[in-house]
Amino acid sequence: MNDFNYRRRHSSTVQIGNVPLGGDNPIRIQSMTSTSTLDTDASVAQCRRIFDAGADYVRLTAQGVREAHNIGEIRAALHAAGYTKPLVADIHFNPKAAFEAAATTDKVRINPGNFVDAARTFKKLEYTDEEYAAELEKIRRAVVPFLAICREHHTAVRLGVNHGSLSDRIMSRYGDTPAGMVESAMEYLRIFREENFNDVAISIKASNTVIMVETVRRLVAEMDREDMHYPLHLGVTEAGDGEDGRIKSAVGIGTLLAEGIGDTVRVSLSEEPELEIPVARKLVDYITAREGHAPISGCFAKAYNRIAPERRPTNAVGSIGGQNVPVVATALSPADVAAIETKPDFFLSDVNWKAVDASDKSEGFSDDDVLLLTSHHANPVGEIEAFIHRLWDNGCKAPVVVRMSYDDANEEDVQVKAGADFGALLLNGLVDGIVLDAPNLPNNADAVAYSFGILQAARRRTTKTEYISCPSCGRTLYDLQHAVKEIKAATSHLKGLKIGIMGCIVNGPGEMADADYGYVGAAVGKVSLYKGKECVERNVPQDVALTHLIDLIKANGDWTEPKQ
Fold it and tell me: Residue 507 above 70 pLDDT?
């Protein structure tokens, strides 16, 4: 069996300008501008910075026909400066803008959640089967003329489904679920295929890595069932900034890349867009370097659900395994970690570990052993997973703590690699703890913080405030990057709280639907504040919005004063 060997999923080839996607082409890297699309000079300058950083595609928002038309002007200016890589128009709510963009850009992204359906309001709708079929016919009537223009101008399409903008129609029939997200995409893909329009790629994203990974897996399975092989765009929406944004992106995207899924990647950071490119490049290069590795034998355990894995059943040995949250252990000494706030659960000297290499084929392990598992394979995740699945099928319930070492001296390199490796093992429910060794970091105790960050990004354990913040785009009408920094500085002591910081209402209320509080762009320099899904204060000037947010948190009893 080859369940644990790295190999890329076969996808069809889509021609996007002069940079084809899918098939045997390399995994492409992309980003999105944060400038106003009507500001030609600023948009051209930012596109150039993104391309200079190594992007294959750049996306620009097109709220209306004027913005869509101006992408053509931006493209002409870029071509005149020698930049000929493709531009992509991002459309929400406005089919007229999509029609215009189809004639001026290389690819148009449309969102099935709001291209024809009304904007999401979280209202429960009721449809008979006949009424639902009529809604699908309405979609067809809107989409077919759009595809005709795309065909005429050799323009590709990205079908971009977001967890934060599923329509009320889909929500009412399928719920706010991965299955609903997949059906939202498939409704359109079936029309595309019937119209023999094949230059289409798909993205299906969420800010929750568990939902994002499960949804992409479900989409691939459904496309396979219907003999579709379109290329896939991967991303974790609203990943945030800094360490958190890099780790969260690596956890979600890296897990799928390791399974061979993904033809293009965007790492969404609440930072300048050109800074996304090297992160995505490191992640892609790290995973694809496994190509052609020595074969790993084995198959998935019979009880394993490869679409939506549950945690492997293990015996609790003290506080490791069983129903306990995954632990963080370290080879560092207590003195090494004295200055960090969240201490590791164990030092390696604290536990009577049974050290084993994943290449070990022996089966003499007791349920009372705590296995400290390592790998020296070129595909360490694959070898580790094969070992644990063998334990599972053999009925061994010994808890497993995985130890992996990274020699990099660069913090971002360690965040990306460790996030991808440990993230896959955690999302797949296979480990009861992690040990991250990074001896060459300027501060090697940062490895402990990264470990807790990976556990939180994989939704396996919460030890700090979680921020769901978008990367900003031309729809953002306030200084989002400043807001993220300001809000983090004021609220990072509120451990376990989830705060959404969103540029606009397109995905904001939906993508942060499981957040406790939301800070969402409403107009130029103004934001609206949310408690859960409910908007409780509108159009607050940004210069006082943080104070209002803190007052809202206090009024709901979730505020504590930071330690001095």
Answer: no
Structure tokens at 348: 């390696």
Percent share of the chain, pLDDT over 70: 96
Q: Indicate the pLDDT class of residue 129, thresholds 50, 70 and 90.
A: confident
Q: How confident is the model at residue 154 (pLDDT cuts 50, 70, 90)?
A: very high
Strand partners, 499: 467, 517
Phi first, then psi, for residue 311 (nearest 5°) are -65, 135
Which helix (H) or strand (E) is 31 found in, with range? strand 28-32
Cβ-proximal residues to 123 (8 Å cutoff; 6+ apart), any chain: 168
* pLDDT top residue among 109 and 63: 109
The model's confidence at residue 475, banded by pLDDT at 50, 70 and 90, is low
Distance of CA 269 to the CA centre of its chain: 10
In three state form, how does the secondary structure of 399-440 look? CEEEEEECCCCCHHHHHHHHHHHHHHHHHCCCCCEEEEECCC
Instruction: Report the alpha-carbon distance of residue 152 to residue 502 in Å, rounded.
Output: 36
Cα–chain center distance at 541 = 30
Half-sphere exposure of 91 (CA within 13 A, CB side): 33
Cβ atoms 481, 273 nearer than 8 A:
no
Backbone φ/ψ region at 76: left (φ over 0), alpha (ψ -120 to 50), beta: alpha
Q: Which residues contact 129 (CB under 8 A, 6 or more apart)?
A: none
Q: For the chain, how far is it from start to end, CA to CA, in angstroms? A: 57
Task: Specify the length of the chain in residues.
Answer: 564
Contact by Cβ (8 Å): 188, 145 = no
**Rg over CA atoms, the chain:** 24
> Which stretches within 259-339 are classed as H helix?
276-288
Residue 559, C-beta contacts closer than 8 angstroms, at least 6 positions apart: 494, 550, 553
Point out which residues pair with 328 in neighbouring strands.
434
Element (H, E) at 183: helix 178-194
DSSP 120: P
Mean pLDDT of the region 86-112: 94
- CB count within 10 Å of CB 49 equals 18
Q: Could you write out the DSSP letters of every residue in 289-303?
A: TTTTPPP------TT
Which of the pair, 165 or 68, is modelled with greater confidence? 68
31 neighbors 239 (Cβ within 8 angstroms) = no
Q: Give the pTM.
A: 0.93
Residue with tokens 């009372």, as numbered in its chain: 368
| Contact residues for 408 (Cβ-Cβ < 8 A; gap 6+) | 414, 417, 438, 440, 441
Give yes or no for residue 156 having a pLDDT over 80. Answer: yes
pLDDT at 273: 95
**Contact indicator for 492, 518 with CB cutoff of 8 Å:** no
DSSP E strands: which ranges in 206-350?
A: 232-234, 264-265, 327-330, 346-347
